[in-house]
Amino acid sequence: MIVFYQERSHHHKTIDLPNETCTNCGNRGTLKMYLMQKYVWLFAPLLPSKKYAIIECSFCDNKIPSSEWNKKTEVIYHKEIKAIKTPVRMWRGAVLMVLLYLIPYTLIKLKVFKKATVKPLIETVNAKKTDVKDFKEGDVLFISADKANKNNTSLYDFTLAKVIKIEGDKTKLKKYTETFDFKDQNTLSLSAIDDSKFKEEIVVKTNFLREDESLVYYTKQEGMLENKVFGKSLTIIK
Predict the structure, then answer these.
(1) For this UniProt entry, which segments traverse the membrane (predicted)?
(2) Residue bearing the bigger pLDDT, 110 or 141
């Protein structure tokens, strides 16, 4: 993998040298000392290194090489460069590089953890869903949001649906406006459910509810029917 980076210089401080004469144009009081520091740039400042100085004449715009500095100028340079501290912000690139490594590493670990823990939990619940087949009007079902609805679901998206009416192969449900965690089905009771939060009505196939199939319903979008996936029923809240 090729990594592109830049070597840049950070300006720390500018010092006027009013008593020094430019060796190029002979003007006095026109020299300025710029205290600088090199660093590597890779998305952000990274690896600050050598501190140095540039002396430039504001009249002729020429730079004075260090070989032409006098003793007084060198004393000023060593004193000022020693006092300069590298700003903490110049290390933020190093922090960014660590995060760029840690974030994918953490996400991979979490994904493995979810596969190892959540899937067995869901399989355990699936084995206990025989009572869902016996649902009746008025029952509140705990629903696992279907993964097909990729925009707003994950392994931890669960909600409720209330059985409003059963008419042969069609069952009318009302969707709950809040979502829950997987573990909530074990502690949630009917007394804790706010009946006023059952809002949107949908119609699904009755046998899909009884046979652990994804619940598909239809909505009208711009005059056309569009099918959407709601989820799968896990259990009946008692």
Answers:
(1) 90-108
(2) 141
